[in-house]
Write a structure and sequence with these properties.
Shape: globular
Order of helices and strands: HHHHHHHHEEEHEEHHHH
CATH class of the largest domain: Mainly Alpha
Helix content: 40-55%
Strand content: 5-15%
Strand order of the largest sheet: 1-2-3
Oligomer: single chain
CATH topology of the largest domain: hpI Integrase, Chain A
């Protein structure tokens, strides 16, 4: 008999979703599998009832943010769809997270980033500096290329994009949904990055998704784990590697408004720089 964690993999393998979504659902169901094994000694998902699903989700609601809880809820819907004759329902009711999040607390200062880097190896430390300077997601570190090698997509980018950073070196990254956008590095940081350039790009995997990597630096889940561990060692706490994007957004808002832009003009520019097509998403980073 397959273990619950292997059953979780089988359940998510053939659903109609992106590889990234499949990975998230599989990870969520594996957590649920461990919880079921611990609390009910259950070894098969078809022995699980809907009251167990809701008990698990309400327990999760005490500790995780709404975004994570929603992923768990959707993963449970995949599970109940598979075993609906036992679980009675396919759709799982909305559950509100009780873990309130102050998004502003995700911010890291430059001094804190410098301390974190001291607790990382050279490749992860360089990735941390780049993520902080450019506001990159973990997986985007894999995809950084010279802009002439990876031209940016045609979008209604803000005309104020990178105002004040005209002398920075242009690169590009592949963001969510495959959107290719421009990022800029200070010349000294670009020089450091080029020391880690591979002769040819190689295929790498992060969270079961394949990417082409031109630079041999930290990236993805491994870098995120390195960042969180280094943050705890250096500062005694961690706000997660995604906090570097919050830092970027808030620093750029200050820079752009000091250049004379209005709040909305600044917000539009930062949205272009972070790869958000809707400015209201970027506002979350500015709380």
């Amino acid at each position: 008999m397959k273990s619950l964690t292997k059953q979780a993999k089988d359940i998510t393998k053939n659903i109609d979703a992106s590889e990234s979504t499949k990975y998230k659902y599989e990870a969520s169901l594996k957590k649920f599998a461990k919880w079921c094994s611990k609390n009910f000694k259950i070894k098969r998902f078809d022995r699980i009832y809907s009251n167990m699903v809701y008990q698990y989700l309400y327990e999760r609601a005490e500790h995780v943010q709404q975004k994570t809880l929603d992923i768990d809820r959707h993963a449970m819907s995949v599970l109940t769809s598979r075993y609906k004759s036992k679980l009675y329902t396919v759709k799982i009711d909305y559950i509100k997270s009780k873990s309130e999040t102050n998004e502003k607390c995700r911010l890291y200062t430059k001094d804190q980033i410098d301390l974190i880097k001291l607790h990382q190896n050279i490749k992860n430390a360089l990735a941390t500096e780049i993520a902080f300077i450019c506001g990159l997601r973990a997986h985007e570190l894999i995809t950084i290329r010279r802009i002439e090698e990876q031209p940016i997509d045609s979008r209604p980018w803000s005309k104020h994009k990178y105002l004040g950073r005209e002398n920075y070196i242009q690169y590009s990254v592949v963001g969510k949904g495959g959107l290719i956008r421009e990022v800029r590095l200070p010349p000294a940081l670009a020089e450091q990055l080029e020391k880690f350039r591979r002769p040819t790009a190689i295929k790498v995997t992060d969270r079961k998704i394949f990417y082409m990597s031109q630079y041999d630096i930290g990236y993805g889940n491994n870098w995120s784990s390195s960042f969180s561990g280094a943050s705890i060692r250096a500062l005694g706490w961690s706000r997660g590697a995604h906090g570097t994007r919050h830092s970027y957004a808030q620093k750029r808002m200050s820079e752009l408004q000091n250049k004379g832009l209005t709040y909305n003009e600044s917000l539009s520019a930062i949205s272009s720089e972070l790869g958000h097509l809707r400015s209201e998403i970027t506002e979350v980073y500015l709380r």
